């Protein structure tokens, strides 16, 4: 049944592409008979620009790469208003993001319905985030600054990109310096009452063999949440800079040095706003609706009001440095070395989770949460266009993550103490170290002029260790019990061989087919939470091993061009089965603290069909369409969360259907000014955002649309754009939490919101020099 639906979907997309070609062919045929000038005919012939990607560790046209890819270039990123990594979900149908505040900038991503929403320090994402050849891991920053392009590689990419790419990769490239060119640009953005931003770049030629590129951003976002207790809006300030140095002493050697830094500080910015509050909770000891009303919060599914008497402060600093050397040997092979060091430091942070000023308040104070990573990649690549093309290399990475977290729970002060505590204070110290060593290679052998065989292997050796110490003090009226100290630790080593096999066949210069089988791998984790939570007294315990995640994926695709490259159609059908999928079960304890336990789901399947269409039917009109239909990403039958059978339910952040459409039309005005009108629309079917069978844990099918109009000067020196994003003001959440923290089971639900959850009208001004 599923196979027939997949075949039908592929057929429908093929018919669609052929129909578009048929629609435009008459216009194309008439150009010779219409009396149009040669210049006009040339304009009509203007096609889609060639897209160059590095999905196979070498520069290639996207049409040559046997991988399902959505590419978003710098101009498209600008037009779509992509300012942080989560905004990329608007550009690729198979890409989704959860809550970045809890899941991390890269860890919250999912591709084809597969991601990793796990808080364990020893966990890694199923979707790798790679910037300028460096895998970021836990050191990812959400800011998108001076990007050249983003490649969304779908399906397991472990052969070339490593263990944290079992679902796909976000392969990003920043703008490189240009030797001999002097210039730059400044852009100002005004969002009315919701903030402002300034972005700037400059390219400085130092001499005839080197250049420097400097980019920076300062941004202020306001008003995602409103604290009715203090009368203050949430405010997030972002700042970042990147310096790139390029040295080309001769035609065979290139040296790239890159340093980047970013700071983020949020105030009055809690994670969730109550969206559903019931009259009473299950136990009957809270009246959530009345308690929020007493604090002035009007609970609804469009609510962004919160009631907090806590400090509400979060902050993070990211720093990174990388050096890349590319050396073309006499044989034509290119030797590449990429060395990188990165850090991410968070804290001190304070968050009030209790959601109101009533009893059973829960507040977090985290002195620090730090990540450090060192990586080294050394590889060699053949020149390309040979009978045998290959990439082979070595990779090493060592990362350390540590966290200090304090949780304070304040039960009802009106009840007698004892037996009811006045407070429960818990300190959690966590540490994890992950080391990876790998050797990899992939080769393409040209059987005939039109048929290639692809084969790749990666051997990975992982070592992971983690420890967790929890100290709790229960205080009553006038006295406190001795501290309960529980600790757990564990370690694991794992060797894995993953790889890829495939065929690629060129039908014509404008059409090729490919079929691949890929085996991916994501390393083990250490679960120290379970033994600590199960223990009722002080002691030292052994951590549990969360087994590696092993996906096997079959993909069949085609990449076609029509009408002299005015229409590109890329279609892919896929079937991915994941053994021991890494998931977590998050619940609230009896007193309202969040407890998240990592675990393995025995088997998960993701299958479906995708299409990316790029079109330029007229010289003035550009269109882009990305479509994904994911037929299955369900928990296996009988699988349970909290004694509830969730078998057959879709994974989190996995809509069945999603489509993104964007378009821009330009006019030449008198005086050679250019006016451009553009817009985009994203449709998404129902998506689950928390692990419960309750209907409130899902957000229904919806569409969000944006419009923009821009004017550019005749010399392209300056421009102005007015935009209106999320026209319908759809309050789409990034995540949903249940029950309401501090309110007990059966109390209700809360939404995590972001900038995209609101309508935003703004204007940008830019000047190029």
From TrEMBL:
Name the domain of life.
Bacteria
Keywords, A to Z, come to: Receptor
Its recorded name reads TonB-dependent receptor
